[in-house]
Amino acid sequence: MTKRHDQRRHHRRRRRRTALVTVALAATLGVTTAACGRAAANSAAPAPATSSQHATTKAPATPKPTAKATTASPSTPSTAAALRLPIGLYTPGEAGSWAKVAAFGKQVGQPVRYVVDYLGPTDPFPAQLAEQAAANGAELVLQLEPTMSMSSVAAGDDDSYLDSLAAQVANFGQPVILSWAAEANGNWYQYGATRTPASEYRAAWAHVMSRFSGVHNVTWMDTLNRTYDGAGVTSDYVVPGVQMYGIDAYYSYPGDTFESVFGETLSQIRAVTDKPILVNETGIGQVNNQVRAIPGLVQGVLANHLAGLIYFNENQGVASLYHQNWALTPAGLKALRDSLASVNGSSATP
Questions:
Q1: Domains, the chain, ordered by start
Q2: What is the DSSP string of 103-153?
Q3: Which of 17, 221, 330, 338 is most buried as measured by Cβ atoms within 10 A of its Cβ?
Q4: Where do runs of H (alpha helix) occur along 21-126?
């Protein structure tokens, strides 16, 4: 397919610990083996990484989980998981209250399935958000955003923080999806392509997972950016040992479709793994037509047997094609409700 031009920097990485509510259209992640195809030249790229570096001392082995801990599979059943395409969402400023999440669920006709938070290099486990999610049948997704060099992480310099987080996750006991150092096939983070060797990135990943070896309620997700001209080789960033993979990509241009946004990236990931793939972060900009694009997005997730979809429901203004108003309009919300009802066979309000 024809690529427009190099589209790297996008809209994500909020680097604040407010509750980032996500949406996932998940087709029972633990049962479905997804494999996707990669998107066209647009990339869903994050904002610059935080500047502070997390300096810690090495710590002993990861604490064992408490008796509360359960064995996680990629997406644990809940009331929402019975739907073919459970839904979730990211919305800004969501801290300490489930009201916005519940309201979104009512607007689209079914409950939210996943809740996301983004953790900086010293942020603790968001216990309140986790408990709210569990109480409402949703699952917590944590995006861990390191600033330490990959070689330092692999050497154990971040073990104190990792072990503390592992103990907190184990104590929570409910299934949690963890993603670490996302979008490394892009070059906007210090650990990204052209800035850190892929071998160092993979070694750091392996070390991070080893610190959670006794924590059985974790599902690991490796999140890649949408591929683009100049991006790192996709296969280099399909990290081994995780249970699922995520893709960040957006409808940035007029006329963008599921195939043009996700197709190429999905294909490249599926060429090297048959594990589940999640649309980890996406949005449909106002330059596009949400009513037109949403049915294709929902059908694309379903037809490609993807694990789900997380919608980035924020107005980022009109700074560029990569920072637009992604928030769903009333017409967009109706289109999403109707599309979900068509695949789930119901439009019942939660």
A1: 37-344 (3.20.20.80)
A2: HHHHHHTS-B-EEEEEE-TTPPP-HHHHHHHHHTT-EEEEEE---S-HHHH
A3: 221
A4: 99-108
